[in-house]
């Protein structure tokens, strides 16, 4: 059976990216996962099965992104869904963040997302359809201390989502974002378990009272990529157990 849709998920080897890829594959969407860690990617691909392909690629290499996307389009004939999930974080006091630190986060979290989107849009315009999903963050909505560069990058993603949706929706391409709340991943577990005070703060202001799972983000991405969301564009969907409205 030929899969109906072709998706790209960046940072698809682990965490939220892998959870999104799992939901896509379970729903017969052929999913290409892209990431830097070849070993991690191959392991993920093996677990996902024949509806998955893995490409080891450093998205910081902007000049090579057009060729990457072109080769995917050539091989698979089309690109229906792009999930821009790859991103990096850094926790440092504001005065300790160097210009290089700041640029490095913006480069990965904003510039490579833009370059991937631009190249995929060129393909989507040919078919007059497509869905782009950015992974934003609660950091774009809160004033979280010690993550200034990450916050700036995710705020840029929120703005790009709206601008892209405005420009591309009339052409058949929907653009949305998902803003995960506090999700149980290896990365967050490390951060919260080492900081009981922060963990308590997170849970006490989350009305549902527990951390989300990566599968919750997978479900949201599957919905936004589906025809069930065909009249939804330009939104940032919070998947946060109510954290943003918690008191």
UniProtKB/TrEMBL annotation:
Domain of life: Bacteria
One Pfam family hit: adh_short_C2
Coiled-coil boundaries: none
Any one Gene Ontology molecular-function term assigned to this protein's record: oxidoreductase activity, acting on the CH-OH group of donors, NAD or NADP as acceptor
Cited Gene3D superfamilies: NAD(P)-binding Rossmann-like Domain
Similarity comment: Belongs to the short-chain dehydrogenases/reductases (SDR) family.
Name of the protein: NAD(P)-dependent dehydrogenase, short-chain alcohol dehydrogenase family
Source lineage: Bacteria, Pseudomonadati, Bacteroidota, Cytophagia, Cytophagales
């Amino acid at each position: 059976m030929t899969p109906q849709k072709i998706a790209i998920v960046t940072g698809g080897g682990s965490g939220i990216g892998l959870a999104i890829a799992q939901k896509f594959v379970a729903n017969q969407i052929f999913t290409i996962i892209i990431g830097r860690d070849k070993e991690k990617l191959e392991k993920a691909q093996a677990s996902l099965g024949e509806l998955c392909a893995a490409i080891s690629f450093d998205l910081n290499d902007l000049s090579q992104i057009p060729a990457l996307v072109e080769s995917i389009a050539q091989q698979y004939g089309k690109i229906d869904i792009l999930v821009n999930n790859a991103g990096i974080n850094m926790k440092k006091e504001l005065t300790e963040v160097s210009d290089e630190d700041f640029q490095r986060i913006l480069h990965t979290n904003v510039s490579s997302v833009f370059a991937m989107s631009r190249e995929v849009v060129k393909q989507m315009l040919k078919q007059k359809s497509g869905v782009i999903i950015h992974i934003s963050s609660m950091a774009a909505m809160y004033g979280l201390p010690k993550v200034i560069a990450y916050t700036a990058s995710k705020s840029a993603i929120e703005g790009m989502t709206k601008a892209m949706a405005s420009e591309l929706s009339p052409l058949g391409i929907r653009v949305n974002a998902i803003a995960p709340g506090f999700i149980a991943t290896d990365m967050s577990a490390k951060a919260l378990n080492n900081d009981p005070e922060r963990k308590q703060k997170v849970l006490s202001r989350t009305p549902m009272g527990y951390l989300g799972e990566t599968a919750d983000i997978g479900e949201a991405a599957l919905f936004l990529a589906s025809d069930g969301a065909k009249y939804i564009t330009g939104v940032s969907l919070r998947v946060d157990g109510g954290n943003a409205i918690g008191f």
